[in-house]
Structures are given as structure tokens and as C-alpha cells.
Amino acid sequence: MPAPTVLFISRDNDPEAGQWLTALQAALPQTRLLSFEQADADARTTAQVAIVAVADTDKLSALPALRWVQSLWAGVESLLACPALANTPIVRMTDPGLSRTMAEAVLAWTLYLHRDMPAYRQAQTNAQWAPLPYRPAGDKTVGVLGCGELGRAALASLNQAGFQTRAWSRSARTLPGTQHFAGLQTLPDLLHACDILVNLLPATAATEKLLNRPRLACLPRGAALINFGRGSVLDDQALLAELDSGRLSHAVLDVFRDEPLPPDSPFWQHPSVTVLPHISAPTPVHSAAAAAAASNVRRFLQRGVIPTPVDRERGY
């Protein structure tokens, strides 16, 4: 009996495609793993599952037997918007390494803001020797929007570092060491107490411009913002207005509505903004990520079980 075929979909000339194919094939030795370009007409016509790095409509439309797709990323908004996958279950990446990477990034950039690194960088530029008063981590509150796997891992790292933490999500949760707020009506209560706000929310209809001018105005004067979720959650003009007025002290932005960030974006040159190129929590090509995807694919090939897909209404 021939080995079942699994297709790998990536962007054209993806420099990591070969590494992913090698890692995934090693994790799925009983399958024939092919890139879309390697697959002949028969393989494209019969493949029931694809591991997808990019939502390429043309490629996905050429797979009529596709029953579900495994995303290589935690964020799946581009897959949900892909017309070729309108009726196809989409499964997010749930690699534990991704949570650790995000927790590391949240802690690193929270400490960057907590220890006044933007101010010291500006002082260096101005050749100023200007020490600032120190506040212990325990005197500062960090709020996290989003309490999924990434949010919970981030909160654990912040708690371990000694920060007071608050968290917000749509539904009630019990989070050790963290005060939790549930439902839209409670969001201002969380914001009022945050010295640093971390957004980890996905892009959905419900989160579109969730952080608008009235909600940003709920943050205390001098508060700072980290956006590691999605650019659509933030109202860019509202943020710029809050930064220009001096109400907010700094913003660390890793995600944007348009990526790469256009050269004419005001964020590039803004003195109160740190721009990052969407690097807070990449899915590196490694055995753990390949094993997480392979486990789902193997269960489907052996028992016909499609993993729990993304809830299209919620967007995650």
C-alpha cells in the first residue's frame, strides 16, 4: 500500500521551506511529504491534509480533496480569510515552544520599559548622564489582554519576575497569582491600573480597534503599551495621539495592519515608539514544532480524527 501523501504549502522561494520539509518528513516517516511544487496532478487531487505556512489561495484551490489544514502558526486570520478554505477546518499550531518564546519576549520588553530603557537610550543620544528613580517590579502592574496558552505563559513569567499582574479575556478564568477580568464591560477596570499593557489578542471582528482612543485614555498617565497580538486590535491614530500628548510614555510594536511596515509609517521615526519586525514569537524550524504538527497529522491518517479546529466565529 503506498504511503499517504501530505502536502506542504509555503510561499514561493521560502528560504525555510526545505528545512520544514526535512523536519516534518522526519516526524512523519510513514508518509510522503511533498511541497506543492513537488506534487504531481494526482497528489494534488488526492491529498486530504496540508501543512500550511502561508494562505496561498491558488495553491489551496488546487486541492479538491482537502479535508483540513494544519497551520504552522498560532495566528490563523489569513487562513480564515482564504476563500479556498471557506469550508475547510483549520487547526492552529500549539507548539509548547511557542508559548515559551512569547513569554520570553513579553518579559524582555516589559523589563525594557520597566527599567526606562527608552529614556536612557535618548539620554545617550543627547550625551546626558541622567539616572532616573527606580521602582521595584512589585510596585508596578502589568496587564495582559488574552488568556490563551500564550497569555498564561506570559503571565507566569511576569509573576515570577515579581510584577503585579492583571489579565483580561472574554470569559471568566482562574489564573494563579493574577487578578482576572472577564467581559468587555470590565476592560476599563483593568486598564485603569496598568503601568504596562501587553496585548496578545488575535485579529477577530470582536477585537477590531478594541484599543481605541477612549480605552487608551483609561490607562494611567505615563503608562506604556506592548502590542504582540495583532495590529488590527490597535487604533493607530489613537495611539499616536496618546503618545504625542504625553499621556502614554512609550509603545513597543511588533505587529501592524500592513506588514512589512511601510517606509512612510509615522511609527518608524516616532521618538516614543520601538518598532520590531514581527519577531516576538516566531515558529522556528525545529523538531518540537514539527512534532506538534506531525502528531495531529498522524492521528488523522491512522484514525481519521481531525483535531479541534479554530472556531470561525471567534477567530481562534
Structure, described:
- The model has no long low-confidence stretch (mean pLDDT 95).
- By secondary structure, the protein is an alpha/beta fold.
- Strand 3 (49-52), helix 3 (57-61) and strand 4 (68-71) form a beta-alpha-beta unit.
- It has helices spanning 17-27, 41-46, 57-61, 77-80, 96-114, 117-125, 149-160, 187-191, 213-216, 236-245, 287-303, and strands spanning 5-9, 32-35, 49-52, 68-71, 90-91, 141-145, 164-169, 179-182, 196-199, 223-227, 248-253, 273-275.
- The protein is elongated and about 70 Å long.
- The chain has two domains: 5-95 and 283-303, Rossmann fold, CATH 3.40.50; 97-275, Rossmann fold, CATH 3.40.50.720.
- The strands form two sheets. Strands 8-7-6-9-10-11-12 form a seven-stranded parallel beta sheet.
What is shown here, in short?
This protein has 316 residues and is α/β, with parallel strands linked by helices. 32% of the residues lie in helices and 16% in strands. The chain folds into two domains: 5-95 and 283-303, NAD(P)-binding Rossmann-like Domain (Rossmann fold), CATH 3.40.50; 97-275, 3-Layer(aba) Sandwich (Rossmann fold).
